[in-house]
Amino acid sequence: MLKIFSFKFQPAQLTFLDEWASVERDHTNSITWTIQDLQASTLRIPAAGGARADTKTVKAALCSAVDVMQALDPP
């Protein structure tokens, strides 16, 4: 026997569903901005003009930034 279920949302549930779209949009924007900021900051690393840095520290910073970007990359 085929049963058909009918769902009726309560007003409070509809409010939460409406808010969810906004929360999801804000979250996605935050992730996008974070990735863009991390990419922009790695592009500002001086690589010419006699710049000097501890290679282990630079490598650790870049690896950390890449790890964060990969963890935040939206599907």
TrEMBL record:
Pfam families: QWRF. One of its GO terms (biological process) is spindle assembly. One of its GO terms (cellular component) is cytoplasm. GO terms for molecular function: microtubule binding. InterPro entries: QWRF (IPR007573). It comes from the Eukaryota. Belongs to the QWRF family. This is AUGMIN subunit. It comes from Sesamum angolense.
